[in-house]
Amino acid sequence: MEYRCEATRVAGFVQQLAVAYIARGYFLYVMGEIPERKDPRVVDERLIAKYGLGVGKATRARRKAAGFANVQYLRYQRTFILVATPGTHSVFEQEGQAIRDAREVPIKFGGYAISYRGGHPHVRIDQENYLELSALFRHLAVHRTKDWFEGRFRKLPFEPYAPVRGQLHCILREVNRRRRLANYELISATCIRVRRRLVRPFEGVASVSHAADDLATMPGVRRPCDSTSDRTNSETRRSSTTADISCGENASA
Questions:
Q1: 229-250 burial, b for 16+ CB within 10 Å, e for fewer?
Q2: Residue 111 near residue 222, CB atoms below 8 Å
Q3: Is 202:4 a contact under the CB 8 Å cutoff?
């Protein structure tokens, strides 16, 4: 059967990973980068065959009932991740010490930190990006107009998952605290988006030049579209492999 694994946008990758996989028990993961000399789609085919991923929901349900782990594979450009449920599977033998648990070590991708807390997926801005953004907005609090700030908050390249909204409101409160002391007009909280855009993770074919065209460019926030240079992924490049609403075609119980 066809196995769709190539996400065409950062938002689609994060949505598929958090809502379709982690929310359904795929806590264990290994993440890596595909070298420039390799064709990502050839690597996709090899990994799908190697770990027997092209199976249906019924097969995955039988595996789960028998105590075997299920595995999913997802890729954006040259960044890939294998996620697995607890159990027995060759992926644990192959990847060994590179395996991490999203309940303990968040998955860092595209400026986000994705984990599992309190019985549900937890998607937030990763700490490095959050601190950079917070420092920038605090610095500019009394140097920019109300309209400027509201426009920048609306254009931030982070989908408003609940933890993300909480982080942005923290930044907004600090900005308004400084503006209040300086007798400046306060920023309205309505500039922070409250509804997340639902995307089809595997829709269309993206090129490196426009795959993240939904992300705004602004100072202080690294554009999460070039996975080969994203420092937030550097800690997870240990793989021994060579290579809320679900829209996940590959997800199963």
A1: ebebbeebeebebebeebbbeb
A2: yes
A3: yes
Question: How many angstroms separate the Cα of 253 from the Cα of each of 21, 25, 88?
Answer: 9, 8, 16
Other CB atoms closer than 10 Å to residue 104's CB: what's the count? Answer: 9
127-140 vs 162-181: helix axis angle to the nearest 10?
20
Quote the CA–CA distance of 60 and 70 in Å, as a whole number: 6
DSSP one-letter string for 123-165: EEE-HHHHHHHHHHHHHHTTTS-HHHHHHHHHH-SS---HHHH
Matching residue, tokens 């033998």: 93
The residue to which tokens 């027997």 are assigned: 52
Rounded Cα distance between 70 and 86, Å, is: 8
pLDDT, one tens digit per residue, over 166-214 is 999 999 999 999 999 999 999 999 999 999 999 999 986 433 333 333 3
Question: Which residues are 158's β-sheet partners?
Answer: none
Alpha-carbon distances, residue 128 vs 85, 133, 218, 231, 245 (angstroms)? 29, 9, 16, 10, 28
This prediction has a pTM of 0.79
